[in-house]
Amino acid sequence: MKNVTDSFVSLGHRPSAGSLGFNTDILSTNLINLSIVLGVLIFFGKGVCASCLLTDLLDNRKQRILNTIRNSEELRGGAIEQLEKARARFRKVEMEADQFRVNGYSEIEREKLNLINSTYKTLEQLENYKNETIQFEQQRTINQVRQRVFQQALQGALGTLNSCLNNELHLRTISANIGMLGSMKEITN
């Protein structure tokens, strides 16, 4: 009690030489502030008891805290609900992605098989074209060889005939051939 009284006394005490000073004693300054606040409360709230005022302040604070907790719980519930919805959407999208992936792989396999079949058919056609070309070239070569052999045989026969035939025999053969051609012409008319 003596400290409280000393605090009030020191409040009235002014330093000399007209300068202001600070009281660095924290305990005594807090007590002074507390006593001033309580004095003002008692003076202005004559019919109000300090404990009732404190109780009201605590009740208000309790209600604000409870309201804040309630709001937080509601927000938490809403957040959990949104999280569940997001998880459900994620699972749905993941299933769709898996389905697209499976369908994509199936489509790729189908396209791969179509490409293989198409390539096989193309190769088969090319093989057929190759074989036809080979046969055509063989036939053409055979015909060229036959024609050459025929020409050589004809030239050989003409050479033999020319060497064996004299002019008179030659003229008779030509006349006989002309006669045969003429009779063939009459038959066809």
TrEMBL record:
Which InterPro entries does this entry report, sorted A to Z? ATP_synth_b/b'su_bac/chlpt
Superkingdom of origin: Eukaryota
Please provide the record's keywords in A-Z order: ATP synthesis, CF(0), Chloroplast, Hydrogen ion transport, Ion transport, Membrane, Plastid, Thylakoid, Transmembrane, Transmembrane helix, Transport
- For this protein, what is any one GO molecular function term? proton-transporting ATP synthase activity, rotational mechanism
Q: What is its main location?
A: membrane
Q: Which GO terms describe its cellular component?
A: chloroplast thylakoid membrane; proton-transporting ATP synthase complex
> How would you describe this protein's topology in the membrane?
Single-pass membrane protein
Question: What sections of the protein cross the membrane?
Answer: 31-54
- Keyword Transmembrane on this protein? yes
Q: What else is known?
A: In plastids the F-type ATPase is also known as CF(1)CF(0).
Function in brief: Component of the F(0) channel, it forms part of the peripheral stalk, linking F(1) to F(0). F(1)F(0) ATP synthase produces ATP from ADP in the presence of a proton or sodium gradient. F-type ATPases consist of two structural domains, F(1) containing the extramembraneous catalytic core and F(0) containing the membrane proton channel, linked together by a central stalk and a peripheral stalk. During catalysis, ATP synthesis in the catalytic domain of F(1) is coupled via a rotary mechanism of the central stalk subunits to proton translocation.
Name of the protein in question: ATP synthase subunit b, chloroplastic
The organism is: Cubanola domingensis (Campanita)
Q: Which gene encodes it?
A: atpF
